[in-house]
Fold:
Amino acid sequence: MAVRVRFAPSPTGPLHIGGVRTALYNYLFAKKHDGAFVLRIEDTDQNRSVKGAEAYIMNALEWLGITPDEGPSTNGRYGPYRQSERKEFYVKHINELVRSGAAYVAFDTAAELAHMRSRAEAKGETFSYNWKNRSALKNSFSQSPEETQKLIERGVPYVIRFKTFSENDNRFLSLQDDVRGKLEIDLSLLDDKILVKQDGMPTYHLANVVDDYLMEISHVIRGEEWLPSMALHVLLYNAFGWKPPVFAHVPLILKPTGKGKLSKRDGDKFGFPVFPLKWDKITPGFKENGYLPESLVNYLALLGWSPNGEKEIFNLDELVEVFSLKSITKSGGRFDPDRCKWFNQQYLQNADSSIVATVLEKEVKSKGFEDSAVDINRVAQLIQNRLTLLTDVWNEASFFFVEPLNYDEKAVRKQWKDETADILTTVIGLLGGSKETSANALRSLIKGYANDNGIGLGKIMAPLRIALVGSLRGPDVFEICSTIGVNKSILRINNAIKHISG
Ligand code: GLU
Structure:
């Protein structure tokens, strides 16, 4: 059987990382089995559709490198891939169910249903439209076919409901989920879900099942929040006489505290992004927060799924290689912002330094230092292994372009001694006289001076760093000196002597 999976978001807003992970698992599974990864936009509820959400979803998948094989932007033979463009299919199929008696027409008004709901509540019960009261309500069960036909012709609004369970049916339905295992569902507890709304539009359940069938979806991999719908979906397949796909419900992503589902608001609360890309111009995503897509993919893949062994860093191809539905965990994965950052750090350190250079170049331009003679590529290489996020770039690199305006007090107190000004004055002389300006040449020059004069190297390096950087941070001090250039370094050292030693 050909593997065909789908990611089926409703375009009600930006894609949350829970959705990203569902998309990712679908992608990995499809690629692992040489199958197709389909993007289907479930936009039958036009009231909930949000402008820009569909484009956002597609851009986010593209940024993450998990691009669908079929979807609204391709011309696959299973299209259209937007449910709003597929109404004819739902009409055709719902008619089949009504004809066979698996679905029925119901005329109860919203007010009547609300009334019954509150009456039940008053008795401490919950109202459910189901096998127990179906024939006492206003529908094609309680009325004759002629009456029903008359009402329809008169234009009385109606919905179409699914006849979920009847007294003579088997009460228990046994389901198989590839993550959760075997489940037994008591059908007598379910209600008769609406399949077509008064406006003639299908509900999620009908459209989802019809499309999964028509698009020949072999495996439904989706979030655990849809597990309660699985019985209804399997019943719908049965009613149509279709073979259901394999189901795999992926556990939720939990809050950093481990308690409850990670929500959009948790991002603000805990200070980390929950969307891949920025949304609304005001909510930054992982991209804007300096994450590499590869690291987010790696982290999310391991959140709720674990390969055998200790290995943690997997690129997309390696993930495809080792992915299996069987290793998806049953319990939710706790989102750990620090671990997510750790993955990014690992990826940044091994990334091509041109990625860092590109970000740095933009920063340098926006801050107005594009005329400085400092070699951006060299700086990028020097700071690369000091970065956790791409947004750290300017913080780690600024002193290559901007001379210190003040000096870290604690560092000065500890490292700047009475003799420092004299030592650095000698260093200035040595630097000024050196023909060679590579970091190695400068290092041996200063080391030689320290050795010859019995001065501890730290007595030179720490103050030199304070003079060049303003504090004790940064990469190798001779690299800094050589990258800034000897002349500019000398200016900085002179400034520091003036400021600090007075
Ligand atoms: N449209 C549903 C959602 O937004 C799809 C659920 C499913 O994959 O069946 O999550």
Q: What stands out?
A: The two ends are 81 Å apart (CA to CA). DSSP finds 20 helices and eleven strands in the chain. The mean pLDDT is 95.
